[in-house]
Write a structure and sequence with these properties.
globular, seven-stranded antiparallel β-sheet, alpha+beta, 4 helices, 18% helix, Glutamine Phosphoribosylpyrophosphate, subunit 1, domain 1
Length: 265
Amino acid sequence: MCQLLGMNCNVPTDICFSFEGFSARGGKTDEHSDGWGIAFFEGVGCRIFLDETSSSISPVADLVKRYPIKSTHVIAHIRKATIGAVALENCHPFQRELWGRYWIFAHNGDLPNFYPKAQFYSPVGQTDSERAFCLILNTLRQAFPDGKPPLEKLYSVLQEITNEIVCKGIFNYLLSDGEHFFAHCSTKLCYIVRQAPFAAAHLIDADITVDFQELTTPSDRVAIITTAPLTDNEVWTEFQPGELLVFRDGLPLKPQFSSVSSQDS
């Protein structure tokens, strides 16, 4: 299956170090060689790079590694094709507009025989992942036609539709609108929060070490979310299966939103 990488932080930060190790898994240190993509939120804008070539040999990936784009919300994906051809339109992350904001989504897993009814949002490619993204946005749009609701109500409806999709298969995903960052674990996902006192980190997939103390200020805080740990000298926290976390300013929120029903909207 595919692999996910996300970053959420309290100040704009580049993801060059993490992406160096992550991109190596796209055909060099792992088998995810059927395309890749990465999205950076910059204010209300969003910069996206996609390529159907393996990330380990993609010239576009080399550009991203050399270009320190700073962002507070980043979502990246490397693909091992299971549903849908190896093609640009099937590369994650996917992008749509909702409530006057861009939404970015990437998925790891399989949803066999998953063909929800097309509504306002329809898939361009052939993946189960894009179909799931469209269903999520169609559900949110119908639940909140007047605009983005408070986080508690948004989370409640997102949890409900996520639970429905999980019944169809494996559904690990990252989702963000540049304001809130959602991460759901169906089978496998982990995260780390880097904050003061910062230390050095060493990549698993490349012999590269970075001392974050030399690159940060004491107030910086960065959360990295990924399918499998990227470093071998840090402690990563595993998500629990079924867990849906919201990250904000580099911290995971563990909200008790289940009591808020979508009927209250």
